[in-house]
Each structure stands twice: as C-alpha cells, then as structure tokens.
Automatic annotation (TrEMBL):
The keyword ATP-binding applies. Residues 2-232 form the ABC transporter domain. InterPro entries: AAA+_ATPase, ABC_transporter-like_ATP-bd, DrrA1/2-like_C, P-loop_NTPase. This is ABC transporter ATP-binding protein. One of its GO terms (molecular function) is ATP binding. Belongs to the ABC transporter superfamily. CDD domains: ABC_DR_subfamily_A. The lineage of its organism: Bacteria, Bacillati, Bacillota, Bacilli, Bacillales. The keyword Transport applies. Keywords: ATP-binding, Nucleotide-binding, Transport. It comes from Paenibacillus contaminans. SUPFAM superfamilies: P-loop containing nucleoside triphosphate hydrolases.
C-alpha cells in the first residue's frame, strides 16, 4: 500500500528526513513512533501530498505522491495533528460540507453521514454546533471527516494527543472497527503503550531515519538486553543467585524477597538451558518468568544514544 524509497526532506540546511525507506502492506495498522521532531509529521504530510520531498520517492497504492497527487488523494484520508474545524457548522452540516467538496452526491451524503456519526460515536451530537463539542469529540468528528470519501488509507497524525484515557479507549475502538473494514492505517503517537495495543507493526523513527521496524512482539524479542527474568526457588535461593552470577549470558543478578531478578542476553534455547541447569543442580524452581517489556521500554532501548548530539 505504501512504498517509501530513500525519502529525504530538508528545510533550508536542516535534514528532517534522511533517506527513509519503508513499506507498509495493505490492511496493516502501522504505528509510527519517535521522539519530537523525528520526522513523523513530515513523512505523513509527504504521503498526504501536502509537502514535496527533496529527493526520493513515496508511493501510495502504486501512485507516486509527486507525479499523481490527485490519485493519491482519492485513496487517503489525512488527519493532521493540528486541525481546524468550522465552528459555525452543526456536526451534520460539517460532514455534509466535506462530502460535497469531494463531489459526493446529496442523496449519498444523506445516507452516509449517519453511518459515519455512528462509527465515531457522535450520533447524539448530530444537531450540535461543532464548537459545543469537547476536544475528544472534535477529534472524532475530524476522523469522520477523513472518511467521507471512503479512503483505503488513513494517515492519522497523533490522533490520541490531548485526549483523556476514556477518549483514547474510544479512539482505539474506532480504529479497531476501521481495521475490520479493511482499511490501512498509519498512526503516529508518543503514547507508546497505547499504540502497542492497537497496531500490528511499529516503525521507530529517530532523526529522520527508520531505526527499527517490525511486529511489536518481534521487536521486543530482538531486544535481548532488556529481557528480564525472575526466578523463585523453594530452598537455597541465595545460593542459586550466587551461582547464576557466573552463568552464561547472565548479567545484573539481584536477589530480594520476591526472588532472583536477572538480565539475560541469550536466546530462547539458552534460556531454557538456564532453567534446565538449575533443575539438574537440584534447585526446586517454583517460577521462572520473563518480564514483559512494553513498547515504552523497547522504544527507550532502541533510541538510547541515537538522539545524542
Ligand atoms: N516548515 C519547517 N521549516 C523548518 N523546519 C521544519 C519545518 N517543519 C518541520 N521542521 C523540522 O523538521 C523536523 C521534523 O519535524 P516533524 O514535525 O516531521 O517531526 P515529528 O516527528 O512529527 O515531531 P512531533 O512529534 O513533535 O510532531 C523537526 O526538527 C522540525 O523542527
């Protein structure tokens, strides 16, 4: 659905995107994460044909964003991080206005608008003025606006920013529904654990370069250094902790009332070997568990040092 090759964008002498390459398959919900100023919005605006690249190419649905912007625009719905709404419209009129600007006939708009309002949970606000809506509701209305022409790809720049937890959950549910409708979605955010729950894949961008991309679980698995094991042993736990300090791939062993905590740098086979070794030495292992690193940890680990001057 998306093919980005060596995409570079410079603002004056400043390089915001530095030969960024990545592909996103149709039907994927892709989380685009990175610290402030990493280049997420720049990438999304280029995909949305609102900004021209300095060099490199970006294609959406096979169409080049520079050569075929009109074809690209038909395929996409773009929600910027800062959006303007027309406060003197009522909710329904607002969507009707956008539908009309896409050339959608009136009878079709009349059918579609209630469906869109239902999708974004604003049915009961159909006759409210836009400026009377809360921030979260306005954001959902903007999302509905992006959907008036039934685009295949949604480009959502920080849709969860400034939302309270309940509003974010609502947004997540809406995205799930859109995914089930077969849409491809790119969503950027700083709220990493939130993203982890709703995306299939993540791409981590730092200083205009993609520094990691893959399924959330795969990226977590690659992060060997952050694998943290906790082991509880029935008797002689302190003795086991001491032995573990000398074991292969083990670093940072700590022993407290909750058990032995250690960092393990080996792979899955080596991890099972560690457990087997303890049992063979006669230790009665009660639990042997791997702490789940969340996306926040992964992100911090991956970007460690990458942002340093
Ligand atoms: N019009 C512009 N002129 C000059 N520099 C710009 C312009 N737009 C963006 N930049 C710079 O390019 C870099 C990338 O910006 P971009 O908005 O793409 O980052 P981002 O990852 O979306 O960040 P954020 O999460 O803060 O929105 C930043 O350093 C920004 O200051």
């Amino acid at each position: 659905m998306i093919e980005i090759r060596e995409l570079t964008k410079t603002y004056g002498g400043f390089t915001a995107l530095n030969a960024l390459s990545m592909t996103i398959d149709a039907g994927t919900v892709f989380g685009f994460v990175g610290p402030n100023g990493a280049g997420k919005s720049t990438t999304m605006m280029i995909l949305a044909t609102l900004l021209g690249p300095t060099s490199g190419t970006a294609k959406v649905g096979g169409y080049d964003v520079t050569e075929k912007p009109k074809d690209v625009r038909r395929l996409i719905g773009y929600m910027p991080d800062f959006f303007g709404v027309y406060d003197n419209f009522k909710t329904t009129e607002y969507l009707d206005f956008y539908g009309a600007s896409y050339g959608i006939p009136r009878t079709e708009r009349q059918k579609m608008i209630p469906q869109l309002l239902e999708l974004v949970n604003l049915t009961d606000k159909a006759d409210f003025y836009v400026d009377s809506l809360s921030r979260g509701m306005k954001q959902r209305l903007c999302l509905a606006r992006c959907l008036v022409h039934d685009p295949q790809l949604l480009i959502l720049d920080e849709p969860a920013s400034g939302m309270d937890p309940r509003a974010r959950i609502e947004m997540r549910e809406i995205l799930k529904e859109l995914k089930s409708m077969g849409k491809t979605i790119i969503i950027s955010s700083h709220i990493l654990p939130e993203l982890a729950e709703m995306v299939d894949e993540i791409g981590v961008i730092e200083r205009g370069q993609l520094i990691a991309k893959g399924k959330v679980a795969d990226i977590q698995r690659q992060m060997r250094a952050s694998r943290v094991l906790t082991i509880r042993i029935l008797e002689r736990e302190a003795e086991a902790a001491n032995e573990l300090r000398d074991a292969m791939h083990v670093s940072y062993v700590q022993h407290d009332e909750k058990g032995i905590h250690l960092h393990f740098g080996g792979d899955d086979a080596e991890q099972s070997g560690l457990l087997l070794g303890l049992i063979e030495k006669g230790y009665k292992v009660i639990t042997f568990s791997e702490a789940q690193t969340d996306l926040e940890d992964v992100f911090l680990e991956i970007t460690k040092g990458a942002g340093a001057p």
